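## retry 2 of 3
previous attempt timed out at serialization; input unchanged, resubmitting
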Amino acid sequence: MQPTQLELDKLTSAFRAAHWPEISERRPTFFSIAKFPHYENVMSNVYQFFFDSDGPHGLGTLCIDALLDAICKQGALPWEGKPFRKVLARREESMDENQRLDILVHNAQLGESWENASALILIENKVYHWLANDLDNYWHSVEKRNPNGEKIGVVLGLKREKLPLDLRTSWVCVSHLEWARAVEALLGSRIYRAEPRYITLLLEFIENIRTMTNAKEDFNELMGFLQQNRAAISRAIQIRDQAMERIAFELREALAATYVVLPKKDENMDGWLIIEKPGKHSLKYILSYYYLFHEGDDAPNYRIALLPEDGNIEKAKYWRDVLSTTEQARLHKIEPDIHHYVIGKTYQVTSNNYQNFPQVVADALRNDWQPLEQYWLIKDTE
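## retry succeeded, writing output
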């Protein structure tokens, strides 16, 4: 159904007033390049490395201090003072019932068991999986082996999980991004005393966390926008498709006296057409107008190029050498094309000539391209 002017005006107003989602730019990190940006085990290994205060990174307790700062924003810690002057971190620590805790942080002396630690942090790391772990079992498993140590449980996730009421006195939820921001706040001059290679790793880890967090937030915002505007978006897509289908018809009408616009399947979606002179000739025109309807790096534009009828690359090279050196090509700024095309020119489309597009194309063919036809508009003898 053709849209009325009133409908078009309403759609224009609706889209102008809409709060369009801003999709964050995805900067590749070491983790995404290596194809494990969201692996829980990989992230837990990195956390363990930076939580260890005597590790080669040279940051001391900074990364665990950042975690404590993030926890403090939600309530009091179970200990007084600063028990984590030395920190050790263990991965996949065995718990009762054959379960394993992702990370166990403690302050026991080097060489001593965590069962002798005075302060412990139980960490369950979550990325895209839901929280289905038996946190109560983790807690009691640690308490059974270290009844005197003060402890707190932390669920690290892309967002704060909602914990059952009976666990909220012993466990808290901290997002990966909250920890990352706390690290950035503490880095300060310590960045200059740390090992540079591991600072790079830490910053890449933080960037990877930010990318994952933004991806989830972007998805939620995107789905919310689509839900609120789905009727308008669906109608706008219908109108665009109708316009792309109609443009082929209008071009045939505008060029009928001189050219043949060849029919092709799904031309309303492709955004390009083949234009020929009647008869059998060596070359044919390719008209591409995809970027009238789809966003690109440049302003809305269309492109006219010449192509050998059979797509022969050697023939394209021959005609490229012949036509690109003519005075007419230089005069009209028609340049050698790439790959299998011969020569081509891109035309910008302004708001003033959008509605008159078929005639704009006809004028371009008449003024820029017809002077070149004397060179190639000959019967193909091959």
